[in-house]
Amino acid sequence: MTRATWTSWPSREALSRQGRTRPRAVIAWSVRVLLLALVLWGTFTAGKFGPWELAVGLLGVLGCAWAAWAFFRTSLEHRLWPSLGLMALLMAAAFGAQQAGAGVPAVVLWCGCAVTALERLPLSAAVPATAGALAAYAAVNTDGWMTTVLTTGGLCLAGYVLRLDAEARGSALRLLAQERAARAAEAESAALNERSRIAREIHDVLAHSLSAQLVHLEAARLLIERQPSGEFRDQVLERVVAARSMAREGLAETRQALSALRGEVAPVEDFLRQLVTAEPGEVTVAGEQRPLTAEASQTVRRVAQEALTNVRKHAPGATVRVRLEYLPGEVALEVRDRGGHRPVDELAVSGSGYGLLGMRERAELLGGTLEAGPGEEGFVVSLRVPA
């Protein structure tokens, strides 16, 4: 064996219950219950004890149970000296039980320490601990040297086999975790590739089309402005300018969607501040800022955009307050307006295809919620989505 083999701990996966099948778990608990029953039976049938002696014996059993539980925890955390201290405490309890005439609990504790040390401690610490426990057992065993040799040899073999079995299970769990991580990375890579492909398609079709429309609309505007002023000319110019503005906004939104697909989304706070620049309002951000997922970021952006569009349609000139709050495990957006007139029954049927229904569907797709309705001074839209 190499030096690393002697000084290394069994892996955390090997020492934990993770990966144990149900039959193995049942067997492990059955063995523990059986050992506890043996300790209790041996303690209370060791002699004619009075009430005080029985109380001390029960406290001793409970103390040993706690020490064994604590040993399992400290060895799981790879803490050597606390583990050795608890092991020494259990051996001392076995010695005390032997001196008090309770031979069965003493044998159970010594044998249990021998097997458990080999299973859960580094070999450099497990071998001396096991040797000490088995030496104490051999000193009190009266069944003959052959029985003692076979028993101690069997206990050593059992402890080492349990160690190898636990290590094999831990290795299998690590390999399974690595395979899952590789599959997740592969799926994420495939998703990124697909999103990049979609982004390229959108850019080649929609972005180019909108850019061409902007060029033509700008040329049309220049041509119309050169014509003599008149009512018809002014109306056409107004329509062309409005169409150019809509095409420019559509191109900007398309570029934002492309950035989101490629994972290059600008911070939500910057988007909200830019969105409110054309409105009499303010944006406040609360909580510890952190990057949001692409889905959560797009939902916040689209809900804010739709809410502000509704404000322009139904409460022109109203003051808008946008609040973005980072909460543990989620993000909250609130868009509140005041100072404008809004017919409440018109909001649900306005917009270009989303409205309240579209905003709520966006939130629910991510497991979030959206509430919208009249507030104290205007209309309030509240969004909460996991992020």
| H and E order | HHHHHHHHHHEHEEHEE
Shape: elongated
Radius of gyration, in angstroms, nearest whole number: 37 Å
Strand content is 5-15%
Q: State the low-pLDDT regions, or none.
A: 343-353
Strand-pairing-aware structural class: alpha+beta
Q: What's the total number of strands?
A: 5
Strand order of the largest sheet: 1-2-3-5-4
Helix content: 55-70%
How confident overall, as mean pLDDT? 79
The largest β sheet comes out as: 5 strands, mixed
Topology summary:
Blueprint: H1 3-7, H2 12-15, H3 22-44, H4 51-76, H5 80-99, H6 103-120, H7 123-140, H8 145-225, H9 231-261, H10 268-276, E1 281-286, H11 294-314, E2 319-327, E3 330-338, H12 355-365, E4 369-374, E5 379-386
Can you describe what's shown?
With 387 residues, this protein is an alpha+beta fold. Helices cover 69% and strands 10% of the residues. The chain contains 12 helices and 5 strands. Strands 1-2-3-5-4 form a 5-stranded mixed beta sheet, with helices on one face. Strand 2 and strand 3 form a beta hairpin.
Quick structural summary:
The chain has 387 residues and is an alpha+beta fold. It has helices spanning 3-7, 12-15, 22-44, 51-76, 80-99, 103-120, 123-140, 145-225, 231-261, 268-276, 294-314, 355-365; strands at 281-286, 319-327, 330-338, 369-374, 379-386.
What characteristics describe this protein?
387 residues; alpha+beta; 5-stranded mixed beta sheet; 69% helix; 12 helices; elongated
